[in-house]
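Q: What residues go here?
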């Protein structure tokens, strides 16, 4: 089976599990189901499954945890869309736009708790209790890291922190935390040695950083329809992403001043976005950010060197490559 076909197969298994877990029919289930079954890549649950399989684990045993990881991820997106005021997610109305802000907040909270219930369910599938306890600790740490990263992003925005290192520390928490946890949890539940779990955790960290840098590039290399959300969202929220920081650092004072005017000024947001795109392209910031994303993806692949060859290892390598070539 090719890596592409295996990913599609695993995504379908995750989707079926999510549908089975959220069929009660009350309003909470309706809100959560809407968030969970909208078209998505299921990156994080597949990373958990493949990390478990790469160390000899059983996919059936860890499937509940994989589904729960997607729940926690979607919870963070639901809350992000409320914070950012984004009305669309994956080309569909965001949860708070489809229902209400109150329903979206409660639904997101429920999906966070779903992760921990799902981890506990793995015991009935034969996973040893001590591995589940360690996995829960890793999930809790990921949640704390994610929240810290979210707060760091707001501090960066408010303080006008233009340091690239600050940005990288922020995304290592906000985005990479759940990638890292998905891989580490899968490895832990699958019976990994400490060295194997560490390698997969490092893979997840590098992959998460690469994924976020590429995500920051989408407003400049893909249409809003391809990306599934407005290309002007980052600009509207004055979010300092890597292409902008690189342009400020390398484009000279005139480019920095123009970026400040576009980020903080008024007027038509779409026109400001077009001018920002032209500026970033002119100074090579889009290409440089793409190079950085590909470098982190290569580091992710290198982190897998100590694992035995398997279809799951090849699938993880495939994920790293596709993370920096996607349009959504």
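A:
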């Amino acid at each position: 089976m090719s890596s592409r076909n295996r990913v599609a197969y695993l995504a379908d298994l995750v989707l079926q599990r999510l549908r089975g877990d959220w069929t009660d029919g009350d309003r909470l289930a309706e809100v959560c189901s809407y968030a969970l079954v909208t078209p998505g890549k299921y990156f994080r649950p597949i990373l958990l499954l493949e990390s478990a399989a790469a160390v000899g684990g059983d996919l059936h045993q860890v499937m509940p945890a994989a589904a729960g990881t997607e729940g926690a991820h979607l919870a963070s997106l639901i809350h992000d869309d409320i914070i950012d005021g984004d009305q669309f997610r994956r080309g569909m109305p965001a949860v708070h736009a489809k229902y209400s802000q109150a329903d979206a907040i409660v639904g997101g909270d429920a999906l966070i708790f779903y992760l921990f219930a799902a981890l506990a369910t793995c015991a009935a599938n034969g996973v040893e209790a001590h591995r589940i306890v360690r996995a829960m600790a890793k999930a809790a740490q990921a949640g704390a890291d994610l929240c810290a990263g979210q707060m760091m992003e707001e501090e960066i925005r408010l303080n006008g922190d233009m340091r690239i290192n600050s940005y990288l520390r922020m995304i290592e928490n906000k985005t990479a935390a759940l990638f890292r946890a998905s891989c580490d949890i899968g490895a832990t539940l699958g019976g990994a040695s400490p060295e194997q779990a560490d390698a997969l955790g490092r893979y997840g960290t590098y992959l998460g950083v690469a994924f976020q840098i590429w995500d920051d590039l989408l407003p400049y290399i893909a249409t809003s329809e391809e990306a599934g959300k407005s290309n002007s969202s980052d600009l509207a929220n004055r979010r300092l992403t890597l292409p902008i920081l690189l342009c400020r650092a390398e484009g000279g004072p005139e480019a920095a001043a123009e970026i400040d005017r576009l980020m903080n000024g008024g007027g038509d947001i779409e026109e400001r976005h077009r001018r920002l795109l032209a500026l970033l392209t002119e100074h090579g910031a889009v290409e440089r950010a793409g190079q950085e994303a590909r470098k982190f993806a290569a580091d992710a692949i290198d982190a897998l060197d100590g694992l035995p060859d398997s279809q799951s290892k090849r699938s993880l390598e495939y994920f790293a490559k596709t993370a920096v070539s996607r349009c959504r």
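A: Context that may help when evaluating the design: The first strand starts at residue 88 and ends at 89. The chain has a mean pLDDT of 92.
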